[in-house]
């Protein structure tokens, strides 16, 4: 994996070489027509941009040459100097020197000396004549120069999206061919199918790798955001950024941009106290906000943490009862995680007053929907008086997902592994009924269980009260996890775990919330992919 410095240097090289090519073209145009103001303005702009970029990347020698060149072109633009006589060869030498310096950076070589050039540029600024060396013969090296192209190219993301879609189609057909080859007696077909599997697998991951970007490309935009929001809220906040080198699919980063912005603004507006309040609580006046990324198995975790007041669970519980989201008696039975899950309900807000930053009832529910659309999860942990952490659990790529395949009523279904907590097989006597709900004790936790068949087919009214005696023999159960809530789904039997390419559902099936898409199995069978967030919400709405 490339370091952040390597990636930034590559970006600098691409832009710098483009600048150099443009400089060479425009200075030639200016030589042909010294009155060409468009070429002159472009040369001034290119030098200015290169100066700033080189300085930011830590290449002061390049920045200094570009700065002196920019000054000369500024004088020519302001009619204080003219592009003629000895000015011309000095500026051509300056452009050539910039090209040599950029190529030296790309090759990790020592940059060539520019002392003579800088001295001549200073003479031009001071209105003096430059000291020119003897010009080389026409058959020397300034004439036999080689033309070079950058080994890096810019690619529009929509082209990568199209390529990834084609690879998805290829993988579906590959799996079908692989299944057919296993049923065939032809060694040649089996060998060809195995080879197709290897190269398509490599192609898939190569394209996924091309789409990866460092999260730092988004994180590095937040220091200014934090400064502006903190100033608006009259708070003193220090931002710490960590894990900028972690890589993730560019489309995922694009989709979570607004969510991350809201969580940061929310932490400043809601979480971190005003300086005087912090001091009274024995805290430093300056609040701490951390934006961090790390990997966890096949996922990327992005965290927004603050050292603020934390989430008052009792206040959230009361607000949920006031909003009619839960009964008063049932609310008292909920654990802290279940109570904090109310924060993600549409329109739910704990703000005491409406400001430009918070309190308008639009927020965490939108964040949750964005994360759900990626097949990710949003977690929240908090300690009263010490702070809060929101964790975005994201897939590295949205093109291919790990899934658990299972069977129900002789049909195959898939559940994304992102929302699969565990799988268990229990006997009816291992289950018990409380308040009309079927419960299973899994890892010292009581988890509600429902027959998936009933959940999918019962479109009207609440689910009937559970009856353990209706269950016959071993029950295969998938424990899913969404929004800090676990739910057990009774199925007919487990099949296997595999990577799948999820395709959107066609009309009119795309209006059914319970399914997040379809995939095609190696047998050619169409397999519906369950939407765990939608299933969980349906169960909560229909439970007895």
Automatic annotation (TrEMBL):
Record-annotated Histidine kinase domain positions: 106-398
Span of domain CheW-like: 400-541
Superkingdom classification of source: Bacteria
Record EC number: 2.7.13.3
Keywords: ATP-binding, Chemotaxis, Kinase, Nucleotide-binding, Phosphoprotein, Transferase, Two-component regulatory system
Any Pfam family: Hpt
Magnesium listed as a keyword: no
UniProt xrefs under InterPro entries: Bact_Chemotaxis_CheA, CheA-like_dim, CheA-like_homodim_sf, CheW-like_dom_sf, CheW-lke_dom, HATPase_C_sf, HATPase_dom, His_kinase_dom
Catalytic activities: ATP + protein L-histidine = ADP + protein N-phospho-L-histidine
UniProt keyword ATP-binding present: yes
UniProt-listed Gene3D superfamilies: Histidine kinase CheA-like, homodimeric domain, Histidine kinase-like ATPase, C-terminal domain, HPT domain, SH3 Domains
Residue numbers of Phosphohistidine PTMs: 48
HPt domain boundaries: 1-105
SUPFAM superfamilies in the record: ATPase domain of HSP90 chaperone/DNA topoisomerase II/histidine kinase, CheW-like, Histidine-containing phosphotransfer domain, HPT domain, Homodimeric domain of signal transducing histidine kinase
Protein's job: Involved in the transmission of sensory signals from the chemoreceptors to the flagellar motors. CheA is autophosphorylated; it can transfer its phosphate group to either CheB or CheY.
UniProt protein name: Chemotaxis protein CheA
Species for this entry: Hymenobacter citatus
């Amino acid at each position: 994996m490339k370091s952040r410095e390597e990636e930034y240097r590559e970006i600098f090289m691409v832009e710098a070489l483009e600048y150099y090519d443009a400089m060479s073209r425009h200075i030639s145009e200016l030589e042909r027509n010294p009155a060409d103001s468009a070429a002159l303005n472009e040369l001034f702009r290119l030098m200015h941009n290169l100066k700033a970029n080189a300085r930011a990347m830590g290449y002061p020698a390049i920045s200094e040459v570009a700065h002196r060149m920019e000054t000369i072109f500024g004088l020519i633009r302001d009619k204080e100097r003219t592009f003629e006589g000895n000015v011309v060869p000095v500026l051509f030498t300056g452009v050539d020197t910039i090209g040599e310096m950029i190529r030296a950076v790309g090759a990790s070589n020592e940059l060539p000396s520019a002392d003579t050039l800088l001295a001549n540029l200073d003479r031009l600024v001071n209105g003096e004549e430059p000291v020119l060396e003897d010009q080389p013969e026409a058959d020397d090296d300034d004439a036999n120069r080689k033309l070079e192209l950058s080994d890096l190219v810019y690619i529009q993301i929509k082209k990568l999206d199209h390529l990834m879609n084609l690879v998805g189609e290829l993988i579906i057909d590959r799996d079908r061919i692989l299944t057919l080859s296993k049923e065939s007696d032809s060694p040649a077909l089996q060998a060809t199918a195995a080879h197709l599997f290897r190269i398509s697998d490599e192609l898939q991951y190569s394209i996924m790798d091309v789409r990866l970007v460092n999260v730092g490309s988004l994180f590095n935009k937040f220091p200014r955001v934090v400064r502006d929001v903190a100033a608006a809220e009259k708070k003193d906040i220090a931002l710490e950024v960590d894990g900028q080198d972690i890589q993730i699919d560019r489309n995922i980063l694009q989709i979570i941009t607004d969510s991350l912005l809201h969580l940061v603004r929310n932490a400043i507006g809601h979480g971190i106290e005003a300086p005087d309040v912090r001091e009274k609580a024995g805290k430093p006046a300056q609040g701490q906000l951390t934006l961090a990324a790390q990997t966890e198995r096949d996922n990327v975790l992005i965290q927004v943490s603050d050292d603020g007041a934390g989430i008052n669970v009792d206040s959230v519980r009361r607000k949920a009862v006031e909003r009619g989201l839960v009964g008063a008696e049932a609310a008292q039975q909920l654990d802290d995680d279940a109570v904090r899950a109310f924060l993600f309900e549409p329109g739910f807000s704990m703000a005491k007053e409406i400001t430009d930053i918070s309190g308008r009832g639009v927020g965490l529910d939108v964040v949750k929907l964005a994360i759900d659309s990626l097949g990710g999860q949003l977690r929240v942990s908090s300690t009263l008086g010490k702070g809060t952490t929101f964790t975005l659990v994201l897939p590295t790529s949205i093109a291919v997902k790990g899934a658990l395949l299972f069977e129900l009523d002789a049909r195959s279904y898939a559940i994304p592994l992102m929302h699969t907590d565990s799988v268990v097989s229990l006997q009816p006597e291992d289950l018990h009924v409380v308040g009309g709900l079927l419960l299973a004790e899994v890892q010292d936790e009581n988890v509600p269980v429902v027959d998936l068949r009933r959940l999918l087919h019962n479109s009207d009214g609440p689910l009937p009260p559970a009856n353990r005696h209706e269950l016959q023999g071993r029950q295969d159960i998938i424990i899913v996890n969404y929004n800090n809530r676990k739910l057990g789904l009774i199925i007919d039997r487990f099949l296997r775990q595999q990577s799948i390419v999820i395709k959107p559902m066609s009309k009119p099936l795309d209006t059914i919330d319970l399914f997040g898409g379809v995939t095609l199995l190696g047998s050619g069978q169409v397999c519906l992919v369950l939407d765990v967030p939608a299933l969980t919400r349906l169960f909560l709405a229909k439970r007895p």
